[in-house]
Amino acid sequence: AVGGSTFELARGFNQVVGVDLSASFIQAAQALQQDGQLPFFRRDEGDLGVSRVASVDPDLANKVAFRRADACALPPEYIGFDAVLIANLLCRLPSPRACLGRLGGPRGLVKPGGLVVLVSPYSWMAEHTPKEVWLGGFER
């Protein structure tokens, strides 16, 4: 979720902002940032799984911030980032084009010459994204 990739990006960038719409994801990431570790249950199948503890290097924790925001309507002050990671998100948005439309341009998320990494299973589902705005996964 939001915390793991944010902390990993902090290995290569001076400042990283992790964004998620889920308040509970942001709270968990902030708890991991503050406490340096966070117990969790890794569900493997149904009710089966194992208890684990996530931990983070304090040097990385000092380089990150977390904010609750909607990827389809990101704050206007979010401009000019060196890099943007959009992971496992696009096919779960009600308006994927709104998110993609913020990437470039004069007030774009990514500065000219910056990096965008877009990773998605493209497992479109009408319960998350209205079929008429899917970017693929259908026959014409």
Provide structural commentary:
With 140 residues, this protein is α/β, with parallel strands linked by helices. Helices cover 22% and strands 31% of the residues. The chain contains 4 helices and 6 strands. It has helices at residues 2-9, 23-35, 58-61, 96-101, and strands at 16-20, 37-45, 48-55, 64-68, 81-87, 110-119. A two-stranded parallel ribbon has the order 1-4. Strands 2-3 form a two-stranded antiparallel ribbon. A two-stranded parallel sheet has the order 5-6. The longest helix has 13 residues, at 23-35. The mean pLDDT is 95.
Explain briefly what this protein structure is.
The chain has 140 residues and is α/β, with parallel strands linked by helices.
Helix-strand layout with pairing:
Blueprint: H1 2-9, E1 16-20, H2 23-35, E2 37-45, E3 48-55, H3 58-61, E4 64-68, E5 81-87, H4 96-101, E6 110-119
The DSSP helix count reads 4
Pattern of helices and strands: HEHEEHEEHE
**What is the mean predicted local confidence, pLDDT?**
95
Number of strands: 6
Approximately how much helix is present in the residues? Answer: 10-25%
Spans of at least 5 consecutive residues whose pLDDT stays below 50 are none
Beta strand %: 25-35%
Assembly type of the chains comes to single chain
Strand order of the largest sheet: 1-4
Between the first and last Cα atoms, what is the distance in angstroms?
Answer: 34 Å
Radius of gyration, rounded?
Answer: 17 Å
Tell me the overall shape: globular
Largest sheet: 2 strands, parallel
**Class per helix and strand makeup:** alpha/beta
